[in-house]
Backbone:
C-alpha cells in the first residue's frame, strides 16, 4: 500500500502533521520505532508557554504564541472528534523570584498580559517568596490525553499507523527519497516527513547535513492530593509545579545531557522533591506516585527545523522543538502544511529553515 506521505515518528509533531495532511485528503502512513506517543511528547508537563518568554529569542516566542493561539480550537476539535478531553485550560502561571525583573517588565509592557503581585502563603498555599509575576493567559494540557486523542483522530481519518517499526536507512535516488528501509520492511511514498524528535538526526543519517538535534533528558515527579493545593502553575528558576483538575501535581524538570540514556535517577528525584517542598511544604507528607524521564529533541536556542530538505525536494523535517514541542505542535504542522501545499505562511518561516546549516 503506497502513501502520499510517510511520516517517521509518532509523537505530537508526527501525529499533528498526519492529522492535517489527512484532512487535506492525503493518504498517510506513520511509522513509530516504539509505541505511538510514548516518548518526549508524553513525558512533558503540558505548559503551553515558554517558561519565561523574555528569556527566549523572537523565533521561539513567535512560534509558541501562534501555537497557543491555535490550541483552544484544536483541543475542542479533538474532543468533538474522539470524545477524549485533553483538559486544556487557561490556568495562569505564577513566576516566583529570582527572575530578570527588567526583562520581564519590558515583556509585560509589550504584551499587556501579566501583572506583578505580592505572593502570600494564604493566597497561593506557598511559602512567602516576595514579588512575583502572574501570567494569566498561560494554558496547560494533559499530554497523555492529547496524544491519545491525536492517535484516535489520525486513525479515524484513515491514517495507517505502524508501531515497533524502526527506520534503518533512507534510500535516495536521483536527488529524491525513493524508499525507507525499516525493521518491518521497505516503504514507499511520494513525500517523506521526519518527525522523530531526539532521534531525527540518527534517522536522517547522511541526509542530516549539519542538523544539530540531540537528546536532552528531563525527569519529572507525580503526586496525588485529594484537592489540588495550587490554583495556578508555579515556576521558580527551572522548577515548575503543575496542578491538574483531579488533584494530581506534576513537578519538573531536569536538563541532562546524557545521550540516549532514559533512566531515572535517585539524585534527580531527591533534588526535585526537596526544591518543591521549599515552595509547598505539604509535599513532605506525600507519597510519590510516579517518576519518569523523557528525551527532548534539543536544538540551538530552542529553534526547531521545519520544512523541506535543502537537497531532496520530497523530504521534510518537523523536529528540534526542544522543550516546547506540544506548545509549538499546531503552529509547526500549519507551517509544514503551508509549505507542502503552497499556501502563504502566516509567519516568517526563514528561521525554521536554518537548522540544516547550509
Residues:
Amino acid at each position: 500500500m503506497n502513501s502520499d506521505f510517510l511520516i517517521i515518528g509518532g509523537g505530537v509533531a508526527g501525529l499533528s502533521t498526519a492529522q492535517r495532511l489527512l484532512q487535506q485528503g492525503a493518504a498517510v502512513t506513520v511509522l513509530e520505532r516504539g509505541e505511538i506517543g510514548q516518548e518526549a511528547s508524553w513525558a512533558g508537563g503540558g505548559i503551553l508557554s515558554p517558561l519565561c518568554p523574555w528569556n527566549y529569542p523572537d523565533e521561539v516566542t513567535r512560534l509558541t504564541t501562534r501555537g497557543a493561539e491555535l490550541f483552544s480550537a484544536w483541543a475542542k476539535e479533538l474532543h468533538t472528534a474522539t470524545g477524549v478531553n485533553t483538559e486544556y485550560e487557561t490556568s495562569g502561571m505564577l513566576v516566583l523570584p529570582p527572575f530578570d525583573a527588567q526583562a520581564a517588565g519590558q515583556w509585560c509592557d509589550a504584551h499587556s498580559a501579566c501583572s506583578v503581585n505580592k505572593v502570600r502563603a494564604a493566597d497561593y498555599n506557598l511559602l512567602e517568596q516576595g514579588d512575583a509575576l502572574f501570567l494569566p493567559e498561560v494554558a496547560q494540557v494533559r499530554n497523555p490525553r492529547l496524544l491519545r486523542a491525536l492517535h484516535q483522530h489520525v486513525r479515524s481519518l484513515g491514517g495507517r499507523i505502524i508501531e515497533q517499526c524502526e527506520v534503518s536507512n533512507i534510500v535516495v535516488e536521483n536527488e529524491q527519497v525513493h524508499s525507507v528501509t525499516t525493521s518491518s520492511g521497505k516503504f514507499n511514498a511520494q513525500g517523506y516527513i521526519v518527525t522523530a524528535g531526539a532521534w531525527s538526526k540518527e534517522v536522517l543519517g547522511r541526509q542530516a547535513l549539519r542538523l544539530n538535534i540531540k537528546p536532552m533528558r528531563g525527569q519529572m515527579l507525580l503526586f496525588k492530593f485529594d484537592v489540588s493545593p495550587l490554583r495556578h502553575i508555579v515556576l521558580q528558576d527551572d522548577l515548575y509545579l503543575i496542578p491538574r483538575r483531579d488533584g494530581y501535581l506534576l513537578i519538573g524538570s531536569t536538563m541532562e545531557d546524557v545521550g540516549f540514556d532514559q533512566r531515572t535517577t535517585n539524585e534527580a528525584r531527591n533534588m526535585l522533591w526537596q526544591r518543591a517542598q521549599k515552595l509547598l511544604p505539604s509535599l513532605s507528607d506525600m507519597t510519590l506516585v510516579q517518576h519518569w524521564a523523557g528525551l527532548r529533541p534539543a536544538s540551538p536556542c530552542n529553534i526547531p527545523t521545519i520544512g523541506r530538505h535543502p537537497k531532496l525536494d520530497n523530504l521534510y523535517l518537523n523536529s528540534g522543538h526542544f522543550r516546547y514541542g506540544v506548545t509549538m505542535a499546531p503552529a509547526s504542522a500549519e507551517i509544514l502544511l503551508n509549505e507542502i501545499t503552497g499556501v502563504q505562511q502566516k509567519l516568517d518561516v526563514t528561521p525554521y529553515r536554518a537548522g540544516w546549516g547550509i
Remarks:
- The mean pLDDT is 93.
- The chain has nine helices and 19 strands.
- The chain has two domains: 1-90+139-213+299-358, 93-136+214-298.
